[in-house]
Amino acid sequence: MAGHSHWANIARKKSVVDARRGKLFSKLSRYIIIAARAGGGDPETNLKLRYAIEKARAVSMPKENIERAIKRGTGELEDVIYDEVLYEGYGPGGAAILIEATTDNRNRTSSEIRKLFERGGGSLGNPGCVAYMFDRKGFFAIDAQKYPDEDRLLAIALEAGADDLHREGDTFEITCDPSRFSAVLEALQAAHIETTEAEVKYLPKMQKELDLDTGKRLVRFLQTLEDHDDVQNVYTDASITAEMTEE
Q: Radius of gyration over alpha carbons of the chain, in Å?
């Protein structure tokens, strides 16, 4: 999943910038609100809320922001109603794209996302057009230089119920069924192993190869999608190389 890793690195670095200017915190607050509204405010019994909180903590979102979002979700504080929407389409080079979004106005968001696809040289598709190309997985990235003992990591991960561990460059990647996400995360934390990424996400079943110029256009398009206020996550099946991300 080397291509996935290069795009994930861009998204991760961008998340730090977004967090500094507050944009990411706003997006994560919506995610927490929706999770709390759907399953209650206790992360011990609401797995989706736990995912959302872990993601917020990973970018140092203040505790009071997290608690406020939970209260908005449970109705203790008044708030607007957000819906979760999954958009599917194709980008430059025919790359499959999945977008997770949260919105208080589906018509507005759909119209804006469609325009971004058109401007980016892609096309917004119908529900189901590309989702079958991805698997929903728990995903963990670990710095292989900081934690070089692959056998130890593999033993910890498999014992907690992970499916696989493999190395991509300087990163170990662990995948698991979403239902095992918390167990694997807890096992890593108990072993004092820090993750550079830990979340439930869509991973492509196969990766699509693109030429350098098309890949650069795709990366710019993906970044444009990420910048939209309603977009939570953007996934692609394209193999993104380091050269494509240089700009």
A: 18
Q: How far is CA 213 from CA 90, 131, 167, 210, in A?
A: 17, 26, 27, 8
Burial (CB count within 10 angstroms: exposed 0-12, middle 13-18, buried 19+), residue 215: buried
Predicted local confidence at residue 51, as pLDDT: 83
Give the rounded distance of the alpha carbon of 181 from its chain centre.
14
- Structure tokens belonging to residue 75: 């109705």
CA nearest neighbour of 12 among 50, 78, 76, 59? 59
Instruction: Return d(Cα 45, Cα 54) in angstroms, integer.
Output: 14
Closest CA to 76 of 64, 67, 85: 67
Instruction: For residues 114 and 100, give the distance between their C-alpha atoms in angstroms, rounded to a whole number.
Output: 14
Q: How does residue 128 score in pLDDT terms, banded at 50, 70 and 90?
A: very high
Max CA distance (Å), the chain: 52
Give the whole-angstrom CA distance, residue 223 versus residue 204.
18
Dihedral through CA 133, CA 135, CA 141, CA 147, nearest 10?
-110
User: Token digits for 87?
Assistant: 């958009």
Closest CA to 3 of 196, 201, 207, 165: 207
Q: Would you state the pLDDT for residue 244?
A: 86
Whether this prediction's pTM lies above 0.90 is answered by no
Q: How many other C-beta atoms are found inside a 10 Å radius of the C-beta of residue 40?
A: 15
> What is the distance of C-alpha 164 from the center of its chain?
19
C-alpha span between 121 and 210 (Å, rounded)? 15
Q: CA-to-CA distance for 38 and 65, rounded, in angstroms? A: 19
